[in-house]
UniProtKB/TrEMBL annotation:
Membrane topology (UniProt): Multi-pass membrane protein
Chief location of this protein within or outside the cell: membrane
Protein name per the record: Olfactory receptor 18-like
Species name: Ictidomys tridecemlineatus (Thirteen-lined ground squirrel)
Residues in G-protein coupled receptors family 1 profile domain copies: 51-300
PANTHER family membership: OLFACTORY RECEPTOR
UniProt GO molecular function: G protein-coupled receptor activity; olfactory receptor activity
Lineage per the UniProt record: Eukaryota, Metazoa, Chordata, Craniata, Vertebrata
Regions crossing the membrane: 36-57, 69-88, 108-130, 151-173, 203-226, 247-270, 282-302
Length: 319
């Protein structure tokens, strides 16, 4: 619906040919909170990068972890590092310099990378659900179905779909001739907020966005639901309760990450639709842009015996 909004009569639209920068919304205007925010987000960023690098190091260094599940996990960790690195360093720099200005091209670049790696997270979680489906429902054919060539193909396909999603968003933004404001109601160049600034009647953009949402939202979620429907159906046929627990425990980490990723994402956008406070929406978006990538390594390391064992071996070899 935000595509159909018109510019207010009392504010002239900004022509894109003269627009050189946007202004990002900070999490707080209180000067006393700025050092706290700087330290907090620097700490969260370092923890996220270190935690995900440890997952990648553990998977690459232990031959026992050279399986499709851990291959996808390593790619998810790399994607999370890229995802958080798009926004948090810029925000930390803005806090340090007391400036919230981002150039027009910088904003488009940040938006493009945000979509690519956000959609990659989405697609990889779907691929990992498929991996668990094959492992539980077709265990005898697991190594044949998910051979190395197919695993690489699935990751490459996820990247290409994400790239297509980003290109379509860019196509929509670049065809907008006017913006009704330069204030982006988030601490990064959120695509939905940029589209909300449009003054144009973009009927074709609506159609393209429906297509984009179907590709990057509906299909992955449907794939995850279908995979877990088949997984639960297969587990329920196992006669012993111990066998059921053992089978479902292999999905626990992935299911936790899926719930965290989609739960925080949907919660933020539903809350933004209900609340009239842009700053509350910006604070809430920290949950899926910063907190979720930070918690993913902890979820997989705490719930996964193989990862814990490999990390202990790495620690003992260093010490």
């Amino acid at each position: 619906l935000f595509f159909l909004k018109r510019c207010p009569n009392n504010k002239g639209p900004q022509n894109i040919t003269h627009l050189s920068e946007f202004h990002l919304l900070g999490l707080s205007e209180d000067p006393q909170l700025q050092p706290i925010l700087f330290g907090l987000f620097l700490f969260m960023y370092l923890v996220t990068v270190l935690g995900n690098l440890l997952i990648i190091l553990a998977v690459s260094s232990d031959s026992h972890l050279h399986t499709p599940m851990y291959f996808f996990l390593a790619n998810l960790s790399l994607t999370d590092i890229c995802f958080i690195s798009i926004m948090v360093p810029k925000m930390i720099g803005n806090i340090q310099t007391h400036s919230r200005v981002i150039s027009y091209m910088g904003c488009l670049t940040q938006m493009s990378l945000f979509i690519i790696f956000g959609c990659m997270d989405d697609m990889l979680l779907t691929v990992m659900a498929y991996d668990r489906f094959v492992a539980i429902c077709h265990p005898l054919h697991y190594s044949v179905i998910l051979n190395p060539h197919r695993c690489v193909s699935l990751v490459l396909m996820s990247f290409l779909v994400s790239l297509l999603d980003s290109l379509l968003h860019n196509l929509i933004i670049l065809q907008l001739p006017y913006f009704k404001d330069m204030e982006v109601a988030n601490f990064f160049c959120d695509p939905s907020q940029l589209l909300n600034l449009s003054c144009s009647d973009t009927f074709i953009s609506n159609i393209v966005m429906c297509f984009v949402v179907t590709i990057s939202g509906f299909f992955p979620i449907s794939g995850i639901f279908y995979s877990y429907y088949k997984i639960i159906s297969s587990i329920m046929r196992i006669p012993s309760s111990g066998g059921k627990y053992k089978a479902f425990s292999t999905c626990g980490s992935h299911l936790s990450v899926v719930c965290l990723f989609y739960g925080t994402g949907f919660g933020v956008y539903i809350g933004s639709a209900v609340s009239n406070s842009p700053r509350k929406g910006a604070v809430a978006s920290v949950m899926y842009t910063v907190v979720t990538p930070m918690l993913n390594p902890f979820i997989y390391s705490l719930r996964n015996r193989d990862i814990r064992r490999t990390l202990r071996k790495l620690h003992s070899s260093i010490v």
